C-alpha cells in the first residue's frame, strides 16, 4: 500500500487526488497547500484525503511525495523529502533549470537510494527522446503555439513591446535555445525543461514560440533527428478546466506516473 504526500491542491493536484484515490494500491493521500482553503476544499471531496498541520510530518508518513505546486515548492520540499528517504514526483520540472538545485537533489537521491521522477507533463514523446539520446541526436526543435493572450505576462513580450492585440495571423515571437526560452517565457518552462533534460540539454535544444490568433489550444510540435531516424510529435492540448494556463494532459501525466510507480507493470519504460 502506498501513502502519498501531495503538495499543491490546485488544478493538477486536485485532478491527481481525485483520479488516484480509487486505486487499491493507494492507502491515503496527505494534502498540503499554503492555501488552507484549497487544502480543506480538496480534502472534503476525497475519501482517502488526510490533513496534518506539519509538512515534515506529512513527508515522514508518506512513501511518495508529489510536488504539484510551484518551482518554489519543488526547491523547498524535494530536498527535504529525499533526505528523509522518500522518492519524489516533480511537476514543476522548470525548477531543474537551476543547475545547482538539480545537482543537489541528484546527490541526495544517490546517497539515500531514492528516485526523482520528472513528469512528462504537457508534452508526449519524452520516452522516445530519452531512448534516442542514448545514441547521437543531431537536432531537437520544439514549436510551441498558443493564442496571443497566453503570452500577455511574459517578460519577452513586455520588453520587446510586442502588441499582442495586433496579431492577426500565426506570428513567431521568439526563436532561440531552450536556455533562453525558459527565462523569457516561464509559462513554457516545464515542457522545454523536460525535453532538454531528456535529450541534448538546454543549450542545444531549440525553441520557437508562436502566437496564433486562430487557435484555442496549447500546441506543442516536436521534431527530433538523430541516429535512430526522425521523431515528429504534435500535441493539441486542451486547457485544464480548473486552470487555463495548465494543459489537462499535464495532470494526466502525473496520474499515469503514479499508476506506474505504485503498480507492477510499467508500459513505455
Ligand atoms: N510539467 C508540465 O508540463 C506542467 C504543466 C502545467 C503546470 N505545471 C506546473 O505544475 C505546478 C502546478 O500547476 P497547477 O496548474 O496545478 O497550479 P495551480 O495554481 O492551479 O495550483 C497550485 C497550488 O499550489 C499551491 N502552492 C504554490 N506554491 C506553494 C508552496 N510553496 N507551498 C504550498 N503550496 C503551494 C497554491 O496555493 C495552489 O493551490 C506549477 O508549478 C506549474 O508550472 C507543469
Largest sheet: 6 strands, parallel
Strand content: 25-35%
Provide a count of the helices: 11
Order of helices and strands: EHEHEHEHEHEHEHEHHHEEEH
Distance between the termini: 22 Å
CATH superfamily of the largest domain: NAD(P)-binding Rossmann-like Domain
Low-pLDDT runs: none
Quote the average pLDDT. 95
How many strand units?
A: 11
User: What fold name goes in the CATH topology slot of the largest domain?
Assistant: Rossmann fold
The helix content, as a percent range, equals 25-40%
Widest β-sheet, arrangement of strands: 3-2-1-4-5-6
Q: What general outline do the C-alpha atoms trace?
A: globular
Radius of gyration over all CA atoms, rounded: 19 Å
Q: Please give the domain count.
A: 2
SS-based structural class?
Answer: alpha/beta
Structure report:
This protein has 269 residues and is of the alpha/beta class. The protein folds into 2 domains: 2-121 and 249-262, NAD(P)-binding Rossmann-like Domain (Rossmann fold, 3-Layer(aba) Sandwich); 126-238, Dihydrodipicolinate Reductase, domain 2 (2-Layer Sandwich). Helices cover 38% and strands 25% of the residues. It has helices at 11-20, 36-44, 55-61, 71-83, 99-112, 126-132, 155-159, 178-184, 189-198, 201-204, 248-262, and strands at 2-7, 26-32, 49-51, 64-67, 87-90, 116-118, 137-146, 171-177, 206-211, 218-226, 229-237. Strands 3-2-1-4-5-6 form a 6-stranded parallel beta sheet, with helices on both faces. The protein has a 5-stranded mixed beta sheet with strand order 8-9-7-10-11. Helix 1 (11-20) packs across helix 11 and helix 8 (178-184) packs antiparallel against helix 9 (189-198). It is globular, with a radius of gyration of 19 Å. Nicotinamide-adenine-dinucleotide (NAD) binds at residues 7-13, 33-35, 38, 68-73, 91-93, 119, 121-122, 190-191, 243, 246-247, 250.
